[in-house]
Amino acid sequence: MSTNHNGSAGQSSDREPVRKTYKLYVGGAFVRSESGYALRQNDVNGAFFANCAKASRKDLRDAIGAARTAFGGWSTRSAFNRSQILFRLAEMIEGRRATFVELLGSLCGRDRAAAEREVSTVIDRVFWYAGWCDKFTQILGGVNPIASPYNNFTVAEPTGVVVLLAPRSAGLIGLVTALLPALAAGNACVLVADDDLPVIALELGEALATSDVPAGAVNVLSGTTSELLPHAADHMDVNAIGSFGRGADDERELGQRAASNIKRVAVFAARSHDEWCDASAQSPYFVERFVEWKTSWHPVGV
Amino acid sequence: MSDFEVKEITPAAPTSVDGDARAARRREARTLLFGDLWEYAPAPESTAVVKVRERYEHFIGGRFVGGGEPMAVHNPATAEQISEIPAAGPDVVDRAVNAARAAFGPWSARPASERAKVLYHIGRMLQERARELAVLETLDNGKPIAETRDVDLPLAAAHFLYYAGWADKLDYAFPGVSPSPLGVAAQVIPWNFPLLMAAWKIAPALACGNTVVLKPAETTPLSASVLAEICAEAGVPDGVVNIVHGDGDTGRALVSHPGIDKVAFTGSTEVGRQIQRTLAGTDVRLTLELGGKGANIVFEDAALDQAVEGIVNGIWFNQGQVCCAGSRLLVQESVAETVLDKLRDRLATLRVGDPLDKNTDVGAINSAAQLERIADYVRIGQAEGAQMHQLACDLPDKGWFFAPTIFTHVAQSHRIAQEEIFGPVLAVQTFRTPDEAVELANNTPYGLSAGVWSDKGSKVFEMTRRLRAGIVWGNTFNQFDPASPFGGYKESGFGREGGRHGLLPYLRLR
After folding, report:
1. CA trace torsion A97, A102, A104, A105 (10° rounding)
2. What is the model's pTM?
3. Chain A residues contacting B via beta carbons under 8 Å
4. Nearest C-alpha neighbor of B99 from the set B250, B240, B252
């Protein structure tokens, strides 16, 4: 039971299921890699499970372009609307619970209870961040009591186009933990999943596609992160990069290249799978890593 | 300074504006210009209040110490040497960092209420010695005494007083997490607001329980040395504030020192980039406050006379040597001629000269190198085909001065519209629609400041929302306050100084 057919119950034993093609999610569409390269996804026993598109540098650039196009519309929606969309993402993952549980079992070797726990934590984390969309600006911003007759206030705004390098070997929880803070802030995101578990990342792309996230606001790539990292860090239209548990060499290279356009680099240290599931792996202060503060002045008087 | 006629320097292309009509208007307006009618009597501020020492030294572990090759310090208004400093090599930097490290434990463990009082004392003593420091700053930096007296000094003191109040309230600053200090902060500051930048750096760092090693700019080291003296007298324990003098080499040694936990840099984007590269992959926290190319956007429904004052304040405050200067004027086409006429008339009233004169509006450029950079950009602007208007004034015979300059007929691709000049040079462009204004304003690598002038509130809010800049001044410009966060988007850097947000770069939240 290691091929990628879901819900085979009730099918006659001689029927060949139609296998899913796992594609990148870019600009609201599911695309094969322009490179034609594929990642082989094996199951936990080493047997073939699926071939997944392997994102190339060009795919990364396309995703960044799609994110830039989407940024204006996504970031200027009302915070309430962004919140509604992320709540819907939680609904969509809940609807795909069986699929994710099965994938975590067959690809990561989790027993059923552990897989159920992980998916529950994932859904709850998405739900939690969804609620932050229309609240974090009140926590992080404020009205400033200055000493002259001006109205002066500070709001947190999304940084722009953000590339998120998801933690390796961290299952579904790693993906949403990397994505949600930047997404809740209103950034247009490119989520890069490493080559160990591409199927789960691309399955998440399908959940995103059905949750009213506008095209391009989230793009999901599966590829070899260490190959894509330098190109993301060099790209002059990326405003910030979130690096989750990449290790010292990657973090150094990332920081050096990111200086090309003074990218914000948010580095999150490596954690174990249990630690990624832990409540300490979610925080409004992670949202803060992906915002800019704008302070406005206006005279008060008649 | 007798002739305030506006000098028109017209390049090959003929001017597109109606020269006769404008000249007629200006003749009419000229009756309002004091400068044409009589000379101002000199009104020099006395320098008796300050004795500039022959030499200023590093301040390490609570003591003034030498070490390093001497570097000359000049008065920009005369180009004469007024003092000297030693340039700290790696050994001196090492001593300073070690002193800060040794002091960190006791300082961070000190009851926060006591740290608060020490900061409060610094603020009070700055107020007490305000006139002395204002004169010293003007001698060292070249900015008008009216600015050091009315802006730099009050704001520097207020910054210490503001953060004094935070020191024992940090637990309430960020809900749900507990804050702790980082350790040793390496701080590198520029020459345009020497004392104020030192205050912006030192006050929040100390309030949060960190210790600091500060490197002032090599052209403006004097006020920081007096601040060191004040720190000692205010009760700052030895080693909590250390100051090392020197140029970029000293700065590099400081920010790459393995014993630091935090770098806060204010200066050029290029140096900021180098620092970001240097710190890549380390645990050293970084905040950068870098360059800017602020757009001052004037709509046709603005109060135009107020807008003109805002434009003047935006680009000629501190000789335009301000990272958040409104160095681009975007004016709606329908009022462009009116605004430019008013601006030229207002330009003609500016008094350029002795920074110690209380009537001076525009003082000296900080260094010969910066003067050359400004002159280069003005040559570039002319070569690119922009049209230059410059205040016709007699610049002092000695010292580093540059006449306030306006470029019209500027294209978005011109270097004077894209690159930070850091001088009294304004690039003017026109626009027709709010969309176009947003497009032009956001179309540089920077994102520090912007100004919007309109009497329509909803338009000001809409523009404020769409401008990608860390500070947006609506119907005002170049306002500062310790409670107001300051910092940029994009290549203008990251992190904020001032306000509650200014605490974040100096705290670890758990």
Report:
1. 140
2. 0.94
3. 76, 139, 142, 144-148, 150, 152, 154, 159-160, 239, 248-249, 251-256, 258-262, 264, 283-285, 288, 292-299
4. B240
CB contact under 8 A, A259 and B496: no
Mutate to test the interface with B, among A154, A235, A261 (most CBs of B within 10 A): A154
CATH architecture, domain defined by B58-290: 3-Layer(aba) Sandwich (3.40)
- Sorted by sequence, the CB contacts under 8 Å of residue B174 that are 6+ apart come out as A285, B503, B504, B507, B509
pLDDT band at B25 (very low <50, low <70, confident <90, very high): low
What is the ipTM metric for this complex?
A: 0.95
Residue of B176, B490, B496 with shortest CB distance to A262: B490
d(CA A134, CA A54): 35
Cβ–Cβ of B486/A295 closer than 8 Å? yes
User: 3-state class of B9 per DSSP?
Assistant: strand
**How near does any CA of chain A get to the CA of B450, in Å?**
10
pLDDT at B21: 60
pLDDT tens digits for B324-345? 999 999 999 999 999 999 999 9
CB pair distance less than 8 Å for A150 and B177: no
**Range(s) for CATH 3.40.605.10 in chain B?**
58-290
pLDDT value at position A302? 74
Distances (CA, A) of B88 to B66, B67, B91, B288, B430: 9, 6, 8, 23, 48
Is B323 part of the annotated catalytic residue set? yes
Domain ranges of chain A: 24-299
Chain A, nearest residue to B268 by Cα: A262
CATH 3.40.309.10 domain position(s) in chain B: 6-12+19-39+292-474
Residue A11 — very low, low, confident or very high, per pLDDT cuts 50/70/90?
low
DSSP string, B139-205: HHH---HHHIIIIIHHHHHHHHHHHHHHTT-GGGTSTTS-EEE-SEEEEE--SSSHHHHHHHHHHHH
Task: Mark yes or no for CB contact A284/B176 under 8 Å.
Answer: yes
Distance CA B125, CA A25 (A): 61
pLDDT digits (tens, 9 = 90+) for B364-421: 999 999 999 999 999 999 999 999 999 999 999 999 999 999 999 999 999 999 999 9
Residue B323 has pLDDT above 50, yes or no: yes
Please name the residues in contact with A133: beta carbons below 8 A apart, sequence gap of 6 or more.
Answer: A79, A80, A82, A83, A86, A184, A186
Q: What is the pLDDT of residues B121-156, one digit of tens each?
A: 999 999 999 999 999 999 999 999 999 999 999 999
Q: Which of B438, B459, B478, B484 to mutate to test the interface with A (most CBs of A within 10 A)?
A: B484
- Confidence check: pLDDT of B465 > 90: yes
Q: Tell me which chain A residues have a C-beta less than 8 angstroms from the C-beta of B509.
A: 285
Q: Which CATH fold topology does A24-299 show?
A: Aldehyde Dehydrogenase; Chain A, domain 1 (3.40.605)
Q: Domain B6-12+19-39+292-474 falls in which CATH fold?
A: Aldehyde Dehydrogenase; Chain A, domain 2 (3.40.309)
Contact residues on chain B for A299, CB-CB shorter than 8 A? 474-476
Give the start-end residues of each E strand in A102-229.
142-143, 150-158, 161-165, 188-193, 218-222
